[in-house]
Write a structure and sequence with these properties.
With 700 residues, the protein is of the alpha/beta class. The chain binds ligand MGD (2 copies), iron/sulfur cluster (SF4) and molybdenum atom.
């Protein structure tokens, strides 16, 4: 175990490491251990932008490490799938892996490799714990491929199309901005280190605009908050473009030199005068016009494009239109001007090199269609599912379909996780995984441009093993020994970093952190340029336009109906990272609802409500508020089933329709009705709820 100040006589040690969770910030950490146990997790200053402090979630990450929900050893299911208290029998690693290898071999021999579906997303999100020995194994097996589209697929497609994923403005550079537009992002909860930089800019005179259906903490501090109806960012952004073009405020010199397709974009934007866009978005037209004027006038101006705007049927075009604004308005070329999206692609690193096995053109399954795929995939059907770094029962759309699919008796499911997640309840075999405090990894930030070494602070808990080790072991058992030469996380770390350029590898090993060649705080169009083939901004990609059913920049109307008039959104909260740490929530969840919507339904604070649509229902408490727009309600993302009164979460109401581009999830296209139910005691899953007489359901 590497320690920064060694072990003293009390068995006290401090370890420098980093947080690799799926959060933009990638904090550097200082972890304290006494007698082999975690006693403190705090920030350190190794990563300058996160400034020595961390969020409350990770400060208490020891509660996950030592929780009763922790999986301590491999186990095999005994009772039926999907029980709230499933029965498992502990087995040895050897027995468990032998059985997994046997079952995968049987499935492959009888049905072909594509009958195996590996199912993973971020997990601990580090470079070592994903797309290493796992990818090599599943590629060699000829398994179905997974399209990892649950998050960022539309925004990423937009950023790639426009700018070839040019690196973004980093948080600390916001202090140079005169105008900051936070669009569909909620950094107060989901990337906290940006907030002090925004506040500093405001103290220096910057104007802050927030686009969000909720009045977030940051929106409270904004000069202008536009509470857009979910899914209407496209018309709002197009109205800004139209205003720029129409009033001669577009930077035509910049566009002529650096962009293609501005005329096509202008024509599509023409359909959206400010008044029309404001009406569709349900916002004040004068305020929108003021934003248009401010954006044209003020420089440096930065747009922080979040992920809240992508999670609907218009998400891809919305992200395109928002990210195209700094090009049309000529905002690049100065510190604090341009945009921020994800910085995960800022490094000259090629994962393909270290996976070492060719990707074969097997069937690709969109992860947002998990439930459907488990029933509809044919030739071959999916017969084995290997879940790791992911908790699909909690996080994928159409929760009931996912649960039905996972209940199939003829499906062999492995769940490899740290804790007994909702998904683990459906496993035939569960395998215990290490947390980032027990193993090596490389953490890559997607806010700050940061790459850091993650190293073990404590010994593994129970018999937990890291991903590399388990997939390498399985490969050996399956006779695929040549796939990946590293058998442990430490060897894998060396194997990977050895393939990095020296300027990154050496400081990463010696100082635990590295800076890319362009520097840690690049100015867009000075230090970094678009990475498109001809280095131009592609404002209108004809091929993408052809592929998109309605065409690029074409608005698709709200899916609400008379039966289901409320837009349910499910944004990030400060309590969990996706569903990670959701096990620690002991309070029943509450849906936030505007006071007018509550009054209409005879609901008051603390009442029990039934949210429903044709797909499912969620029983939870109500929190009445005026900090969300009327017609929109909000339940936290990442809840575990035990957090609601009927064991269903927001995803039970989320359709598995896909975004216009990128095949992303439409989490915020859930349209529902809400009605009061007589309160039942919160504990058992089996509570029967009675619909109150006042709001008995209408016939439909
Ligand atoms: N604490 C915490 N931090 C996290 C995460 C977490 O779960 N918890 N998750 C991490 C991950 S995986 C991601 S992808 C990021 C996500 O980080 P964010 O981009 O901040 O994403 P969300 O919380 O989904 O949504 C942001 C805001 O968008 C608003 N919103 C919803 N629909 C719309 C819309 O149609 N238009 C507009 N303009 N706004 C809308 C929501 O009200 C919310 O305030 O955060 C990361 N950081
Ligand atoms: N309703 C709704 N649902 C959403 C969203 C939303 O906005 N609304 N947002 C979506 C977003 S942005 C995202 S990114 C997805 C994320 O969805 P998921 O990818 O399911 O993310 P988590 O819920 O964090 O689950 C990650 C799991 O990996 C496990 N894990 C962590 N490290 C390791 C490891 O090293 N090895 C192994 N084997 N396991 C590990 C963790 O314990 C955890 O159970 O959720 C999406 N779901
Ligand atoms: S979750 Fe984000 S804010 Fe919290 S410690 Fe990790 S990187 Fe920092
Ligand atoms: Mo995400």
């Amino acid at each position: 175990m590497a320690t920064s100040d060694g072990n003293d006589h009390r068995g006290h040690a401090t370890v420098d490491t980093a947080c690799p969770l799926d959060c933009p910030d990638s904090c550097s950490l200082s972890v304290t251990i006494e007698h082999g146990k975690l006693t403190g997790i705090d920030g350190s200053t190794r990563q300058a932008e996160t400034n020595g402090y961390i969020c409350g979630k990770v400060r208490r990450f020891d509660r996950r490490v030592y929780s009763d929900d922790r999986i301590l050893r491999p186990a095999i299911r005994q009772g039926p799938k999907g029980q709230s208290r499933p029965k498992f029998k502990d087995v040895t690693w050897d027995e468990a892996l032998e059985q997994v290898a046997t079952r995968l071999t049987e499935v492959r021999e009888r049905w072909g490799g594509e009958a195996i579906l590996p199912f993973s997303y971020g997990g601990s999100n580090g470079l070592v714990s994903q797309d290493t020995s796992d990818a090599a194994l599943f590629r060699r097996l000829g398994a179905s491929r997974l399209s990892r589209t649950v998050c960022a697929a539309p925004t990423r497609t937009a950023a790639r199309t426009l700018y070839g994923e040019m690196p973004s403005i980093t948080p600390s550079d916001y202090t140079h901005s005169q105008l900051i537009v936070v669009w569909g992002a909620n950094p107060s909860e989901s990337g906290i280190h940006l907030v002090p930089y925004i506040r500093e800019a405001q103290r220096k005179g910057a104007t802050l605009v927030v686009m969000d259906p909720r009045q977030t903490k940051l929106a409270l501090k904004a000069d202008i908050h536009l509470p857009v109806r979910p899914g209407t960012d496209l018309p709002v952004a197009l109205a800004l473009h139209r205003h720029l073009f129409e009033h001669g405020l577009a930077d035509t010199t910049f566009l002529d030199e650096h962009a293609r397709g501005s005329e096509r974009l202008r024509l599509r934007a023409d359909a959206w005068p400010i008044g029309r866009a404001a009406e569709v978005a349900g916002i004040d037209a004068t305020a929108l016009e003021e934003v248009a004027d401010l954006y044209a006038r003020k420089s440096p101006a930065v747009i922080r494009c979040g992920w809240g705007l992508e999670r609907n049927r218009n998400g891809g075009s919305a992200a395109l239109a928002v990210l195209a604004l700094p090009a049309v308005a000529g905002k690049f070329g100065v510190r604090g001007g341009g945009y921020s999206m994800s910085n995960s692609n800022a490094w000259p690193i090629d994962r393909e090199r270290w996976i070492g096995a060719e990707e074969s053109p097997t069937r690709a399954v969109n992860m947002n269609h998990l439930g459907r795929a488990l029933f509809e995939c044919q030739a071959p059907p999916i017969k084995a599912l290997f879940v790791y770094n992911c908790n699909p029962v909690a996080t994928m759309p159409d929760q009931n379909a996912v649960a039905r699919g996972l209940s199939r008796d003829d499906l062999f499911t492995v769940v490899f996780d740290q804790v007994r997640t909702d998904t683990a309840a459906y496993a035939d075999i569960i395998l215990p995984a290490t947390t980032f405090l027990e193993t090596y990894d490389v953490a890559k930030g997607y806010g700050p441009i940061s790459l850091q070494l993650v190293q073990p602070a404590i010994d593994t808990v129970g018999e937990a093993r890291p991903n590399v080790e388990v997939f390498a072991d399985l490969a050996a058992r399956l006779g695929l020994v040549d796939t990946w030469s590293a058998n442990t996380e430490a060897e894998a770390l060396l194997q990977i970093t050895n393939m990095m350029p020296n300027e990154i590898r050496i400081p990463l090993h010696e100082a635990g952190t590295a800076t890319p060649p362009m520097g840690a705080a690049p100015i867009q169009f000075v230090d970094v340029q678009p990475r498109t083939a001809d280095k131009k901004i592609e404002l209108f990609n004809e091929a993408l336009d052809d592929e998109t059913p309605e065409g690029l920049y074409v608005f698709q109307p709200d899916p609400a109906s008379d039966d289901y008039p409320l837009a349910l959104i499910s944004p990030a909260t400060s309590r969990t990272i996706c569903s990670t740490l959701g096990e620690l929530q002991s309070e029943p969840a509450a849906v936030e609802m505007h006071v007018d919507d509550a009054v209409e339904r005879d609901l008051s604070n603390g009442d029990t409500v039934r949210l429903f649509n044709d797909q499912g229902e969620v029983h939870c408490l109500v929190k009445v508020t005026d900090r969300i727009r009327k017609g929109t309600i909000s339940l936290p993302k990442g809840l575990w089933r035990k957090s609601t009164l009927n064991g269903s979460t927001a995803n039970a109401l989320v359709p598995d329709t896909l975004t216009d581009i990128g095949g992303g999830a439409c989490f915020n296209d859930a349209r529902v009705q809400a009605e009061r139910v007589l309160a039942a005691s919160y504990k058992g899953r089996d509570v029967t709820l009675t619909v109150s007489a006042a709001t008995a359901p209408r016939a439909h």
